[in-house]
Design brief:
mainly alpha, Arc Repressor Mutant, subunit A, two-stranded antiparallel ribbon, 62% helix, 8% strand
Length: 210
């Protein structure tokens, strides 16, 4: 469902977004909206967690929950560790399970060939492409004429994965370029605003910036 130790931080993160407070029911709805029906949590899971956080990281008044200063500090201090653990473990799990999938099905998965009816919710994860296992599959194919069709199909599917990966990286780079451009434009506006500052005397003929 959620990586170890992450659910409390997820709850605190959502509560933190509601400075006026949030009810347990609304919290459940927010979790469902953000993580999907397949990861829907029950009240029997959430309320014991809230009670665990109560009095230290969160406070409750008339059914409304708010984050405490200690809760904000917990988010700031613990999120990097939980994210690191998740990012280190998930690729290992992903690649381990991918190896158990037949090569053709694995390539279908990576190249968007999976149909929703066959694999609800699955999708390509090019960042986790395990080239070593593909090399192992390749080495197992005998060097004989009967392997040509299989090798051509393998090449075709890998070419699709390569193209989609290139397109995704290009889109990410373009997005970063746009953000950098926006930062430059904002700096120019800030510089123009600063240039409009008037220098006023502060004491006995001395001047300083506003």
């Amino acid at each position: 469902m959620f990586p170890k130790n992450s659910l409390d931080l997820v709850i605190l993160s959502i509560i933190n977004e509601f400075p006026d407070g949030i009810t347990g029911y609304t919290l459940l709805k927010e979790l469902e909206k953000r993580f999907g029906e397949e990861r829907k949590l029950s009240a029997g899971t959430i309320y014991p967690r809230l009670n665990k956080l109560k009095g230290i990281f969160a406070e409750e008044t008339d059914g409304t929950w708010k984050i405490t200063p200690k809760g904000k500090a917990q988010l700031e201090n613990q999120l990097p560790d939980v994210l690191t653990e998740s990012l280190e473990f998930m690729p290992v799990l992903y690649k381990f399970l991918m190896k158990a999938m037949p090569f053709g099905r694995r390539m279908d998965f990576l190249s968007h060939a999976s149909r929703m009816g066959e694999c609800t919710g699955c999708g390509p994860q090019h960042d986790l492409l395990d080239t070593e296992s593909i090399k192992e599959d390749l080495n197992e194919i005998p060097n004989e004429g009967s392997s040509i069709k299989r090798l051509e199909e393998m090449k075709k599917k890998l070419a699709i994965v390569k193209k989609e990966t290139e397109d995704r990286v290009k889109a990410q780079l373009a997005s970063l370029d746009n953000i950098l451009k926006s930062i430059d434009e904002k700096i120019e506006k800030c510089m123009a605003e600063k240039a409009s500052w008037k220098r006023i005397p502060i004491e006995e003929g001395k001047f300083d910036d506003r």
